[in-house]
Each structure stands twice: as C-alpha cells, then as structure tokens.
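note to self: the first set is below, dont mix up w the second
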Amino acid sequence: MTYRVVQWATGNQGVEAIRAILDRPDLELVGAKVYSEEKDGMDAGVLAGRPPCGVTATRDIDEILALGADCVAYFPLLTDLDEVCAILASGANVTTTAFLFHPRFLPDADLAKLEAACAQGGTSVHGTGLNPGNLSGVLPLALSGMSRSIEKITLQERADWSFYESTNITFDNMRFGRDVGDVSEEASDFLRFNSTIFQEEVALLGEALGADLDEVTAEVELVTANDDHEIFGIPLRAGTVSGQRWHWRGWRQGQVLIEIETLWTVGGEYPPSWPTPQDGWTLTLEGEPSIRAHLLTLMSYDKPLPLAEHVRAASVATAMQAINAIPALCEAPAGVRTMADLPLIRSGFGFGFATPVPPF
C-alpha cells in the first residue's frame, strides 16, 4: 500500500523528511506546507536539494487540507493545536516531532478537543523524534524488557550547540547569548514549550512502566561565558548565557525515579562543576540487572566526512523516527497513539537503496 503524505514545515528536519518520502516506494509526497514567502511556490524536491518532483510548496492551509492526504508529517518549531485538530478532522493522520509525547499531560480541554478531532476524521496522531523521542521513550521501554525490576531511569544528553548552523534556534529560541534573567520558562514561550515536551516524555515512561509518579518537575542551571565568542557570525558576549543544564524529573514519595538531563553549551566553554560525559546520549536503567548504553549519531563511522555532514545526523534521526512511523500510524485505531502504543518502528529502507544527498 502507498500512503499519501504532506510535509508540514521544511526546516532542517523537514527537508530530511522530504528526501525520505521521495525515496520510499510506499510513500508519496503530495504536498508541502511552508511558512516563508520565499519558499511559497517552490518545488518541494528543490527545497530538499533534489530534482523537481512536481509538488509545489504552499503557505495556504486550506490548500493542504484539501489534498486528502493519508498523513501529515507535522514538524513546526511550535505547535498550534487548532491546526493539528483541523488536519485530523479532515481525515489525515498526523505524525509529529513537535509535541504529544504524552498527550495526557495536556490540559483536559485540549485533550478532549484532540480526541474529538481524531473521532471526527477517523484518524490518529503520534508524537515522536530523537530526544524527546526514541532515546528517551522507545529505547528505555525496549531495554526494560531485559529487567526484572527497575529502580531508576536516567538519560543524559551532552551537546555543544556551537556546531549547529541554525542560529535562529540557538540564539532566538534557546536564548543562548542572553542575560540570565531572559532564559527561563517564564521569559520564553519556546523554552516553556520545550520543557513541557521533555516533561511529557518523563510522564510517558512513568505511565508505561507503572511508576505511579506523584509529580514531574523541571529545573535549569545557567552558566555564563567567560570570553567573547562568535558562532556562525553571531556574537556570544562574555557574561551572557553559554550553558544550560536542564533536569526533568519524575518523583514518587520524594524519590526521583525517572530523569532526563541535558548539558547544553555554546562557545566551547564547559563548566568544571558539571559532569563530563561523552558527547551524545547516555541511557542508564538502574535495576536488576542494571543496563547502560551510550549513543552518538554521526552520518558515518566508516567514511571521512566534513563536520557539517555529521551535524545533520541528529536532524535525520529525528525526522526518520516520525516518517518511519507513518505506515503503522495510518493502520492504527483512531486516537492518540504514543511511543508505548505503536509497534516497534523500523527503518523504511532497511538495507535498500536511498538517494544520496548532494552537497549544498
């Protein structure tokens, strides 16, 4: 069976999704939703660095909804619940990297609205990605199958954002380079949204593994730069925020059972008071037995590639977790389907052929 797919948003992850949709024989790209005037009217293949594919990108939401797609890959930076409900009610399933890692973390009214849209359209919605996503959801659940009992789950992420060329995300959304008072959930809609989706992931694990959590909390420790730096032409001044150490914790009776920690820096300065894990993600299940796995995404471990190619790896992985879920999602019963609900998501290519991405 072939599933007709719309790609909604064409940033770093969106273009990786378009490439995968174009390459997979069981997926057909039928539409692309963009936000900028410059992209409006462009061929979606060209947007993704491919030859023209005959699909014209548009900013018109009604035009997208009229396509009758089987699934919309919804990848905006911020979620619009009304948009998602309109897509679902129109009869298109939604796979998204933007939210819904644990929908019952939503306010009751929002969840009811979402479920009503699914019922109206006979559709399903699924939130997934890398982290939050596979590494903090799917993988802990998979590894828990080897445990008799679990005492604590911890995922620790270490990343230097200096290599991430999307400076609008680094400086505008994540607010690196700002004064300390400007970097908090209260001061930024994006940081509040970003924190919420990590809390959703903690809640998802807690529910799936019977943790019976009392609460899920968020906490951030900020550090400032000692020196001036320049990141892809953007100044990071001494005294402004150059490091964010976030903790999202699930508690029961005063004890932390689930924790996601991120150690994010910009400018190459690393606080000596912070732990110094390897780059990437370290997942630990403390229990009987205890299990630890360290993961790092690169575009190749065998081929010599420029650093810019390796930086793409996280975007590819995030997008592919959502795109590879499309067949299972389209066949799932109507409603909200979490990482704990869908079957194990596998590569759509496996050892098959995928078109190489040309250098830009």
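second set (the one i keep forgetting abt)
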Amino acid sequence: MSTIHKLFLFSLTCLLLFACDRSVCPYDDERFCDRDFRDSLAAAEPCFYSMNAVAGELQGNNRVVFSPAEFIDVPRKALLEYFTGFRCPNCPPASATAANIHQSRCGEVIVVFVHATSQFAAPLNNHPNGWYTLDLRTPESNTFLQDFMLTSLPSGVVNRKQFGGTFGIAAGQWLSEIQAEQSSPAQAFLRIRRAEFDPATRSMDLQIAYRFIGLDAADFNLTVGILENGIIEAQKDGPDDLFPYEHNFVFRGNANGTYGSPLSTTSPPLAPNEAVLHSLNFPIDDEWNEDQLYFYALLSNRSSLEVIQADGFYFEMDP
C-alpha cells in the first residue's frame, strides 16, 4: 500500500471517529502537527492579492476589450473549499495546510474556509471564558455538506470534483489534486476587473469579465463569494482552547445564490479580443469588516457543479 493511501486511510479513520491519537501525525510533513510551526506560518506575510492590473477597456453591449495575448495560455486557477469549525479539535493542522497552499500558490488558488456542522461550528453560550460565541456558519454550509456528501471534519473539496469517488479528501491530498487540476488547459477566462464600495448604503459593485474557451456559456453558472479575514475568536486544538485565534478566509456567503446565477449563450458572438462584462451589486452585512473582505468569482458547470475557473482579490478601503 502506498504512503498516500496509508495517510488517507488514517485520516479517514480520524474523521469518522472525530478523535485521533495525537502522538501520531497523519501528514507527510509532520511539522503541521506542531503548534509552534503552525504559528510561524500564520506569522508569515499573508497572500492577499489585489485585482489584476490589466482591467480591459469597456465597450458597448456589455463587452470588455483586452489585448489578444490575455486569451493565450490562460492560467487555470483552482478552488479549495475547506470545511472546518472553531470547535473541531483535529482541524488546526488542516487549517495550516490550507493556509500554506494559499501562501505558496499566491494568486493561483482560491481558499475558502467553510465553517459547518452544529457539532463543531455552532456557538456556545456557556463557555467559562465567554469564547465560541460567534456563528461563522452560513445558509449555504448545510447545502454544501449534503451535496458534497461530507460527514465529518476536517475535509476539503477541490474544484467541486470527486477524486476516487468522493468529493471530500484529506489535507495531505489537496496540493497534489490542485496541481493536477492546474496542469490541464483553462476552459475559460475569468477576471474581477472593478470593485466599488458605497459606505452610505453598505453596498458593493463588482464588474466581472469572462470568456469561455470552446464551451457554451449556457451550461454554466457564475458565482460571487465573500470571505472575511481577521476574525478573532477561539479555536479548539486537541484538548486545548486557543485564544486569541485569528480566523482568515472565513466564508460569509455568496452574493448571488448558493451556486450562483445562470449564464446564457453569448449573442452576438464575441470578437477575438472581447470578453463579456457582468455587473453585480449586493449588500455588505453590518457585522462584516469591509476593510477585511475578500471577493472571488467562479464559473461552474450547472449540472455537475464542477468549477472550471476562478478569480479573486482582497478588497481594501482607500485610507
């Protein structure tokens, strides 16, 4: 049996039992089971990349004109949805793995921390220190758990695809599956090109450009998701409670539905240097810190839910 299979079986056992012998580390890189090493990763300069520099020129008929070179060798970005909870005792090593992937593949991978399940993410009202009071779950969380057939935490879903017959895979597999996905040619161009926040109405305006490569837009949905960084709460780590603990990449919900909104066949056809412009306006919750928000866009197959392209950026208010 290969090392990968052994690690997967060990991790699966941990997931099903929700408790492991913490003297045995299930990761190839055992440093991820060392809290000091994880803290050193968290202290590193985070990768919050801004919007792409080349925004494209606006045209009529909801079109954006780019240099033709923008549509040659389009990079394929990947989505990692990591299902976790602040009372999940086995999650911190997986959280460090997700953060490390985000850091090492800056701009190439959208990492989303989905806080889910009543067992591990529901707030408490009786903790002696008054911790675990925030509810970081969203209405989409339970739908994702059901649709991706996830029964335990931690678990990760890459591009909403099944690997070995399952959506949820252990942290030790995430990077290899992401690399495999990104080795295939991109099937679409996707770019968030403009964002404006109105503090008076607490609303966000986004402009998104997209162009499919050999596919029909009518088979796909466009989804815009919202993350928040810098949320201070507690985190369970084995038998210990860590506080203060900074939660980043926290999924706050989607701006246009659980799986986004449907696209339609482009008419009239695009010129060789054109992309479709999609505009979206949505409210920002009063409890969210607009200075710490991160937005991402996905193109996903309407039937299979598979994500074929992603893009994202970190929004910072002007001083």
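remember for set 2: The chain has one domain: 72-314.
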